[in-house]
Amino acid sequence: MPPLPRNCTFTEADWTILSKFWHPIAYSDDIEDGKPHASILLDQELVIYKAAGRLVVAKDLCIHRGAQISGGWMEDGELVCPYHGFRYGERGQCTQVPAQPEAAIPKKLCLQTYPAIERYGLIWTCLAGENTGYPMPEWPEFERTDLRFFRLDDMVWNSAATRHVENFNDVAHLSWLHQDTFGNPDKPEIPNYDVIATEWGLHFEIDYERRSVENLGFNGKPSYAHLTYDLHLPFYTRLHIGLEDGLEYILFDLASPQSLKKTNVFFRMARNWDMDGPAEPTLELQYKILSEDQPIVEAQRPEELPLDLSEEFHIRADLQSTYYRKALKRLGLGKPISA
């Protein structure tokens, strides 16, 4: 088992479980060959860089004198520590010590690296190693050529990842919290729906008569939408929105926990219409929708999602939420639940 990060905010048991999953830590196009990128996952500070065309994810620490190596730079395809100029190559190994260039470099003088996979326009890592048996989400939409993809800037929410995930999968709040965008306050009723447990997540579908937002018309005209939610445990959701006339809008919401109560939110979108139009209206609308959610979620108490169902009241429309909490408990996560 890898050691817990310094000042870890998770219980040891929860951190150990969550460290076995693959988590996104950056957008692929934010990783430049000429600049290291800092990220945080499960309280572990990380550096991401590319050397000799190889993607490297490592602990953000030069073991010579404990400097934060993400503050360095790339030179001749190697990462240079800003403190004493130690250089590191494509597998995290030290290749040069400027203060004594002729001395042999010990093999143990290297960065602590983690597995790295580039998929869905994101960089993923698993702190417990590559072969934990916990799979990444399978999202075949990214192979489709009839979709136009977008991404938001990565955001940090001051909330537990579980609270963010539950909010994104909650259908009962749509007509109330999102009245200024797509929510339809005249149709607050949620019909009964079923939740299907899959091997690594949850699936449910529901019809919702929302307000139309296509082309940013905001005309308030009701529009039929078939919502299909697929949650990949512990924190990653694909929402397929089927609209009239065969229009599709697909959202990918990824809540990657920096710590117990702070979450990196990565968000990708795709649609099968307006392939050449400007991206700004779509991005602005999605930012607005998320800005309606964020202050509510950040103010929820307790901050950690209660796994004991008796601690909060549940209605029939909360079926997905109760399934989610039970699924987290089956993973072995304890109380209070990790972010």
For the CA atoms, what is the radius of gyration? 22 Å
Q: What is the CATH T-level topology of the largest domain? A: Naphthalene 1,2-dioxygenase Alpha Subunit, Chain A, domain 1
Order of helices and strands: HEEEEEEEEEEEEEHHEEEEEEHH
Low-confidence stretches: 215-220
Task: Please state the overall shape, judged from the principal axes of the Cα atoms.
Answer: globular
* Coarse structural class: alpha+beta
How many E strands? 19
Oligomer: single chain
Largest beta-sheet details: 8 strands, antiparallel
- How many domain units? 2
Distance between the termini: 20 Å
Q: With helices defined by DSSP (H or I, 4 residues minimum), what is the helix count?
A: 5
Helix content: 10-25%
CATH architecture of the largest domain: Alpha-Beta Complex
Q: How does this model look, in words?
A:
- The model is unreliable at 215-220 (pLDDT under 50).
- The protein folds into two domains: 12-125, Rieske Iron-sulfur Protein (3-layer Sandwich), CATH 2.102.10.10; 140-330, Naphthalene 1,2-dioxygenase Alpha Subunit, Chain A, domain 1 (Alpha-Beta Complex).
- The longest helix has 19 residues, at 280-298.
- The strands form four sheets. Strands 12, 13, 14, 15, 16, 17, 18 and 19 form an eight-stranded antiparallel beta sheet that branches.
- It is globular.
- It is an alpha+beta fold.
- The chain has five helices and 19 strands.
Keyword list:
about 350 residues; alpha+beta; Rieske Iron-sulfur Protein; 2 domains; eight-stranded antiparallel beta sheet; four-stranded antiparallel beta sheet; 5 helices; 19 strands; globular
